[in-house]
Amino acid sequence: MGITSKIDEFGLAAWISILVLAFAAAWPLGLVVLAYLAFSGRLSNWVKGEKSDMFKARGRWHSPCGKSRSSGNAAFDEYKEETLKRLEDEQNDFHAFLDRLRQAKDKAEFDQFMADRKGNGPASGEAAQA
Fold first, then answer.
1. What average pLDDT values come out for the chain (130 residues) when binned by 10 residues?
2. Using H for helix, E for strand and C for coil, what is the string for the chain?
3. Whole-prediction pTM value?
């Protein structure tokens, strides 16, 4: 197990600390660490906001694979699962609503375009008067 894997176990905070200390010690050393982070892909994942394996939350509620773990209290776990399911359903309903709203707007804009093109719209009447 290499030194980078040891640092990866501590996560992003360890890499940032090493980077700051390297720049404080000597700026060329800091540039070397920064270049390593950039070329290894660690920096690009952090900048893009993507979560690589080493940056994923390893909190009490999440297992390493990202699934929620049991809190030890069956009633709370059931409540949490119901709440998450309800929120997911609301999110899906909201996205469906936004899709219908976009479709209605697109249809209205298209109908307006067709009316203007046929000369039945207010834009063509104003153009004829000018």
1. 79 86 90 86 64 44 56 90 95 95 95 88 52
2. CCHHHHHHHHCHHHHHHHHHHHHHHCHHHHHHHHHHHHHCCHHHHHHHCCCCHHHCCCCCCECCCCCECCCCCHHHHHHHHHHHHHHHHHHHHHHHHHHHHHHHHHHHHHHHHHHHHHCCCHHHHHHHHC
3. 0.38
Give yes or no for a contact between 63 and 70, defined as CB atoms under 8 angstroms apart: no
Residues 6 or more apart in contact with residue 25 via CB below 8 angstroms? none
- Count CB neighbours of 54 within 10 A: 19
